[in-house]
Amino acid sequence: MRERRLHEFAFLLPWLGVFLTTPPTILALASWSRAAGFPVFIVYIFAVWAMLIAAAFLLARRLPWSDERQGADAPLSGRDGANG
Amino acid sequence: MLTPGVVLAISGLYLALLFVLAFATDRMAANGRAKLIRSPVVYTLSLTVYCTSWTFYGAVGSAARNGAEFATIYLGPTLVFAGAFFLLRKLVRISKTHRITSIADFISSRYGKSTRVAAIVTLIALVGTTPYIALQLKSVATSLDILTVGKTLVSAEAHGIFGDTAFWVAASMAAFVIIFGTRNIGADEHHPGVVAAIAFESLVKLAALVAVGLFVVIGLKSAGPDYSGPVWLDPALRGTPPFSAGDPSRWTTMLFLAAAAIVCLPRQFQVAVVEVTDERHLRTASWLFPLYMLLISFFTVPIAVAGLGIVGPDRNPDLYVLTVPLQAGSDLLALAAFIGGFSSATSMVIVACIALSIMISNHMVMPLLLRSRRLDLHQARDLTGLLLAIRRVSIVLILSLGFFYYRFGAQSDALAAIGLISFAAAAQLLPAMVGGIYWRGGTEQGAVAGLLAGFVVWAYTLLLPSLVRVGGAMPGLLTDGPFGIAFLRPEALFYLDGWGSIQHALFWSLSLNVGAYVFVSLASVPKPLERLQSALFVDAFGESPRRTSRAWTGDTAVEDLMALARRIVGPERAYRVFRDYAESEKHDLRELVADARLISFVERQLAGSIGAASARVLVSRVAGGETISLDEVITILDETQQAIEYGRQLEQKSSELEAVAVQLRLANARLKEIDTIKDEFLSHVSHELRTPMTSIRSFAEVLLEGDRLSPQQRDRFARIIYEESQRLTRLLDEILDLNRLQRGDHDLKQARIDPATTAHEAVAAMTGFAFQHGIDLRDEVPDRLGPVLSDPDRLKQVLINLVHNAIKFNDSAGGHVRVSGSVRADRVVLRVEDDGPGVSERDRARIFEKFVRGSSGREGSGLGLAISKQILEAHGGGISVHPAAARGAVFEIDLPLAGAEPPAAPAETAIRPALKGEHA
Fold first, then answer.
1. Does residue B266 have a cis bond before it (omega within 30 degrees)?
2. Size of interface A-B (CB pairs under 8 A)
3. Distance CA B766, CA B782 (A)
4. Any stretches that span the bilayer, and where are they (chain B) (predicted)?
5. Which tens digit of pLDDT belongs to each residue from B346-395?
6. Does A12 touch chain B (CB under 8 A)?
């Protein structure tokens, strides 16, 4: 159950990133930037970026990256096709 | 100012360092000691080949011109890597399973190992990458000019070919790639030396850019009269582009382009998917690669602002990374920045060349060789040399193309423009690739249509205008359209005007690309192999991770396969391939059979060297044609998509076997039962015969020896002997009778009678016996029941037997036996009901067998009911027993009504018992 949630969050993450880094979201921030006389936009982009990296880092440690085999550098089993 | 000699010497030393590093790594890897190279961190660093000199210098230029837009080039890949668990992991999984050698190989494998698709992808990659290579060469030449002369010379005009630094850079890159990229025809295109060099370079460029950035942020003070803080915080520069958000429509386009490029650029695919040694490296890369990109772009804005402040907006912003330290008088830092830019350029050129040379040799030259039939497969010549030569020639060709593009074309454009043109070309591969791993419906024809449409529109709307601008020829083409047709103006296609050229080109090329891909796919029928591959790709995370196509159904000789492998991958590797296979299959190498498994195994090994499409063609020549039929594909692509064909077949077989085993078990049980019955029968017969025989013999002995017997005794004994022999005869008669009835060899008289009459007679005959036993026998049979065809004597025998049993076994005092009859449907039914002990459920099933007497086991031959059953079946009737309502048993016999017609032919009645007997 927990792993399933994790999976779903992992799937959500890039889309959340897309949402945060495309118009219309960034249009609002671009307007703020102009109004504030301070590069709010750049700061925002780097903040989102850092957040994405942090989330990816946390997820990467928990997700089952190789659930089914011991990695590709294990000697080729030669069991082709069938699960043998 | 640095002298050209110093800069060139340092560049040369740097290149030499790369060669040594790559050489040492290759040696270590060959000895199996290159653990570090296989680490996730090195993998991540090799991914940063994405950060070319275009971004090394160009990001600052982009920030100085268009504001925050520069971030999109890194944000796009960040988004893709944040989702690495899904898209990238799937790409890697598929590529490892199918031994993919390049992006062209990947896409072509997906669409039925199509040679056409591979060639088109290779063409797009080549045309899209050449300007990019030119761009790298240009950046090296330009940065060198800046560093040594202080201004940008137009190198191509200032120097001859051999005086041009770019030529020497290209030449040394060619040497590097040839030495370390084509050492051998690899098993899976791993180049540890190259990866080590790339990883090293990624650190160099990061360090250089961070150094310049820190210098700007900390060290660079403004020289202005009213502000003396750091330049990049100068209030006078607040309003400059680097602080702005830029153009949102371009923003989205660039974000998308960068996201597409990180998987679709041939060199990115090469490092991220082909060179990866372990799928789990993505775990680290998913956050470390975005972190690297964040770090390398962290100082972009300060450098851009400082450039605008102290170098000035009139100088090329693309070179601020160099000109800012130079302006500030820090030659050493400028040199470091130059080396950073140099390493960005070289790493890109190296990887791009490797990726492209693999694609050109596998997907353009090999198919041509295969088609020309020059490649006589029955010759024993080793082809590895030829393959390597093809790759080496391709590398020289690619770099020459890039160099000449740089000499004649890439002079005027801003760096960013060329980079985006290249990205847009790579994006054309996206629909066929991503569509291919998530949508089963994509077909080869759809992929060809989409790729071609996208490529043509890209070339027309993006490449052509850039060439026209550079070349200066036919300027009217852009302003008025071809032949004055404004509708077809390359940068305002179909009157879509007023957009940036990138957005415009990307919109049309990708719309038509996706449209053609989807609609042609839907309209075309995929070949069986395409269906198979599409299922394997889409379902890459299915139950069996190692499953691959097993499309070979033909047989061939192992020797032929081995000869083929020997020629493609060399004798040593070929031997290892077969030995590994034999080991994994627990076979002796000499006893291998060239079955579908071995053929597809060899095919995949070859695919790891020459690409799936060529491997398929070659193997099909040896294996006598790929004979996969639609049925077989459907067999393989089972209903659940999860189970694999092999397992499924096994399952099916085992369930078939199970069914057969169940049948066999049942049959065996039945045989045993019959055997037991036979044994019982024999023992019963012997027992039944022995009892009278024993008494006959003993009384006869007594008579023979008995001189002292009285005449009365003598008479009594003689009578006993007489009775016993009569009983014996009766028993034997019954047995014979039963056997006759069972064989259908009976002498039944067929008469039209009313069984009611027979029943009355039988009851009347038994009245005395009932009286003796104190049983109340009642005849409740109606006077008339209906005509049946029957032997009246035999029917009476049956009824008497039933009534006799009912009376004899009725142990209740003052018991009752009731005989009744009725007509049910077209049958006459007679019932004999008693209130005796009844028949247990177990006995009910077998009471009609021979010698079965019921579990209470009382006297009687045990043949009566068996005979009754046979008699009734000979009449087309039946007998059954049920428990009575309260206590006792009901024996029920039924006979078919004869109807109104005259007696049926005896033949019919003779057949029916036989039929019935089968089911009994």
1. no
2. 162
3. 18
4. 6-24, 36-59, 71-88, 117-135, 165-182, 194-220, 249-266, 287-312, 332-362, 383-408, 414-439, 446-468
5. 888 888 888 888 888 888 888 887 777 655 554 546 677 777 888 888 88
6. no
